[in-house]
Amino acid sequence: MPNQNLDLRQDSQYNLVINKQKTLIANITAQYISGTTTGNTYVDFDFSSYSAATLQVRNKPDAPFVVLSFSTTDGSIVLPASGGTFQLKKSATELSTVRAGEYYYDMYLTSALYAKRAFLSGSFTIVTNISQ
Q1: Is residue 112 included in any domain, yes or no?
Q2: Burial status of residue 44 (CB atoms within 10 A of its CB: 0-12, 13-18, 19 or more)
Q3: Bridge partners for 19 per DSSP
Q4: What range does the domain containing 62 cover?
Q5: What's the total number of domains in the chain?
Q6: CATH code of the domain covering residue 75
Q7: Nearest to 55 by CA among 40, 27, 74, 36
Q8: Helix, strand, or coil (residue 15)
């Protein structure tokens, strides 16, 4: 998955596609547009006030079973000290336990003000590589 830029000006829907047999190290830049009298400016999302994040992948949005999870606790989500680029990480071994297919995810941020702030959600597609 190459580096991605997110535009957070309208909502927090973003679809993710990853490869099943490869180690995942995805740098995702979250930005929003700050409108001014001189024009629109892209501004990096400020993660500095957030202490943690979780992302859960499920078969259906309301399914009780978590297929795959990411967290700052285990290092599979890395929030930046500054700037708007966060990272998702999983080993090929961890990803090999999940079937290729389309799933759904949501991501939450945690801070002193927000115990659980909704940040991103959407489809989470895991594809099998043709060449191994």
Answers
A1: yes
A2: middle
A3: 127
A4: 4-127
A5: 1
A6: 2.60.40.3350
A7: 74
A8: coil
| Cβ contact 101:126 at 8 Å | yes
The pLDDT tens digits for 54-80 are 999 999 988 999 999 999 999 999 999
Gap between the Cα atoms of 27 and 131, Å rounded: 23
* Domain assignment present for 22: yes
Cα 91 from Cα 75, distance rounded (Å):
11
Residue 25 has a pLDDT of: 93
User: 95 φ, ψ to 5°?
Assistant: -75, -25
Q: How many CB atoms lie within 10 A of CB 132?
A: 6
Distance of alpha carbon 93 from alpha carbon 112, whole angstroms = 34
* Closest residue by Cα to residue 127 from 107, 105, 103: 103
Q: Which residues contact 61 (CB under 8 A, 6 or more apart)?
A: 104, 106
CA atoms lying within 13 Å on the CB side of residue 111 = 12
- pLDDT value at position 21? 78
Whether 81 maps to a domain, the answer reads yes
| pLDDT tops 80 at residue 35 | no
